[in-house]
Amino acid sequence: MSSDRTQPVIRVSGVTKAYRLYNSKADRAAELFLPFGRKRHHLHYALRDFSFEVAKGESIGIIGRNGSGKSTLLKIIAGVLTATSGEVSLHGRVASLLELGAGFNPEMTGRENVYFQGALLGLGSREMEKRVAEILEFADIGEFIEQPVKTYSSGMFVRLAFAVSIHVDPEVLIVDEALAVGDVRFQKKCVDWMKRFQQRGGTILFVSHDIFTVKAFCNRLVLIDEGKLEAIGDPDTVANRYYQIMFPKASPSTTAAGDEVQEIRQELAEMPELQDEDDGHWFEPDMSDGQRQWGGGAASIARLRVGGVRAPNLFAWQDSILFDVVVRWNRGEVRRLCAEYHVQPRLLVGFRLENTKGFVLTNFTNATQADNGFDLLASGVSECRVRCRIAPLKLAAGNYFFTPGLAVGTVDHLHPVMEYTNLVHLHCDTSRQVLGQMQLDYEIAFSATAAGAEAGAAIATAS
Predict the structure, then answer these.
(1) Residues 304-345: pLDDT tens digits?
(2) In this protein, which residues make up the domain named ABC transporter (predicted)?
(3) Are the C-beta atoms of residues 404 and 323 closer than 8 Å to each other?
(4) Which residues contact 452 (CB under 8 A, 6 or more apart)?
């Protein structure tokens, strides 16, 4: 996907959005009628001096905590809100899907609103007439298209709004959590259309709390925190920074002191090497990159080794992968966390497998009904060893990433504690032909039906 960064499609320069907040209606009235008196308000900054650029053909994901300013930014870019200061420049027709049914007249029917929305986007009735059939087919709300919009469910709102937005030939599409509404089939239809839009060189701004979706879908991520640009760039790096904000590290008083850390390192250095003859080559991933991990001080992986590979980072179709993990935890911090989040003090260890595009192929964990984890507050215990063996993966040739993670609780109610994003990089080298990403163990059988046998006999008799 080519991008001409010399001529950005969207340029946001020093945008600030401030709101006046009053303690009471009386203060608001007093300031209105006594403009030269003392100020009765204080300013809340939804955005502060925000700047970034989007090149043609880019898909930008915007992430952040609730209330961080994501929706405010999109509304300013779309022209729904006016910035307090700063500038926004856009090039090309923009279609925005922000709030459900924004711009719809609730008293008008769905069909009437289709034409109304087209007029707002600069298309005449004749032009919209050519597109109505495609819009109604995509929205797929049936006879409700002739009913007043005020009778629609939220899902029907977004189906019709999305259908209108994408059928007015936009060059820039702005989407704010719209795909979180509607059934699974409609969400799949929207994602498929957005992928085709990407391939045609369209530009997308996409706000979502589904980090895996934005990582897989977007070229870059923008992280907003408290109205400020916290990070922008590679999806993995920015997503990891988001998790670090969401799950800050524990205070120094709850983590290991310097002497204890040195003691732990010494113990790890003295651990015996694994000598399993049938487990192939073992290697130890580099865990020193703090930018690729997030979590507090309740529990952490002290050591991780990967076995079953042919050489460092290399495995084949028929190889089983093994993980040997040493987990340590702070009993006091575990006790505090369990009390705060009302979870059981049981350790859950999981792994996520992704390809190079960020698509999650699978997750697996010990969090099952039969085995709900290791008791972290068992008498005198602050360390355990976890062995995990994965049967032959039968993946297509290529690069893959395992993300190990720790949680506390049970399968029904857990709290994430630590994650090491894309810590284990493995390359699958196989001569097998795989259509897709992985090969399944399957069986296909044929048998003639009774009707088919009678038809065959009749053909034989006729000839």
Answers:
(1) 999 888 877 888 888 889 999 999 999 999 999 999 999 999
(2) 10-251
(3) yes
(4) none
- Looking at the DSSP bridge assignments, the partners of residue 90 are 10
Nearest to 292 by CA among 143, 198, 421, 430: 421
The answer for residues whose C-beta is within 8 angstroms of residue 164's C-beta and 6 or more apart is 113, 114, 117, 118, 135
SS3 385: strand
Residue 447 has pLDDT above 80, yes or no: no
pTM for the whole structure: 0.72
CATH number of 10-22+40-246, picked from 3.40.47.10, 3.40.50.970, 3.40.50.1240, 3.40.50.300: 3.40.50.300
Q: What is the DSSP letter of 396?
A: P
In the chain, residues under CATH classification 3.40.50.300 are: 10-22+40-246
- Quickly list H helices, 19-139: 25-33, 70-78, 110-120, 125-139
Please give the angle made by the CA atoms of 264, 252 and 248, to the nearest 5 degrees. 105
Q: How far apart are CA 10 and CA 52, in angstroms?
A: 8
| Residues 84/14, Cβ–Cβ less than 8 Å | no
Non-local CB neighbours of 430 within 8 Å, separated by 6+ positions: 316, 317, 395, 396, 397
Q: Indicate where the chain has its CATH 2.70.50.60 domain(s).
A: 263-428
Q: How far apart are CA 62 and CA 141, in angstroms?
A: 30
Backbone phi, psi, residue 386, to 5°? -120, 130
CA R_g for the chain = 28
Asked if residue 48 lies in contact with residue 73, where contact means CB atoms within 8 angstroms, the answer is no
What is the CATH T-level fold of the domain 263-428, as seen in this structure? Coagulation Factor XIII; Chain A, domain 1 (2.70.50)
Residue whose tokens read 């934005």: 214
